[in-house]
Amino acid sequence: MLKFVKSLATAALLSVVTLSGANAAGASVDLKSVDWQHTGLFGTYDRAAAQRGLQVYREVCAGCHGLNLVAFRTLTDLGFTEDEVKALSAEYTFVDGPNDDGDMYERPGKPFDKFPDPFPNEKAARASNGGAYPPDLSLIVKARPGFENYLYSLMVGYVDPPANFELNPGMNYNAYFAGHQIAMPAPLSEDAVEYADGTPATVDQMAKDLTVFLAWAAEPKLEDRKHMGLRVILFLLIMTGIFFAAKRKIWADVH
User: Fold this and answer.
1) pLDDT in tens, 122-153
2) What's the predicted TM-score (pTM) here?
3) What is each CA distance from 76 to 79, 81, 147, in whole angstroms?
4) CB burial of residue 67 (10 Å; 0-12, 13-18, 19+)
5) Under the phi-then-psi rule, with left for phi > 0, alpha for psi from -120 to 50, and beta for the rest, what region is 35?
């Protein structure tokens, strides 16, 4: 029993040290701060921005990064019609089967499918990216310290390195990445996409739109959760009032 307690204490200490080190590393860089519409008690997703962010993902990011936890059908939550979702999913090809002959076959995507990975496996991904493994973006906003601000800062943080900074071969300088050296080249450039709504496709705008879309991808039920929380708070306030009135009534004649 004593050995178990000691092992548990050691594991807890290592966890604290690791977490502290990670926080210290993340805190070494001051991120840009944006007042995101979906944050706060009453915040909701900017659906126009999220739709533009989806376009940025598909045209810029999807060649390297997957989104394999997001089903096409959930895009209706962002304002897409069912016909638009069907058309969008049909642009992708999926391997399915086996058929009656025992063979696998290819078919167009359907709304219940999820965004496919750009590579068949991790080794293929690393081979195509100089040894680096592009992470899946489904939960990327929640998986990094700083959340939305981290992703946005990273997207706009590609600048020329200081004169005295030694950049390793194959690496790129980023002002907001820990250590300032990142394998991923700058993904965004001016007018990299042409927005259907006419919004100017600046690097800053695309970075914000992509961040909003990936924030939604990481927590698509955020608005439902907030609405439920508000209803619960309202219910508790009403019940508190009722119980207080009942207490006053019951004990009114007691002196």
Assistant:
1) 999 999 998 889 999 999 999 999 999 999 99
2) 0.80
3) 5, 6, 24
4) buried
5) beta
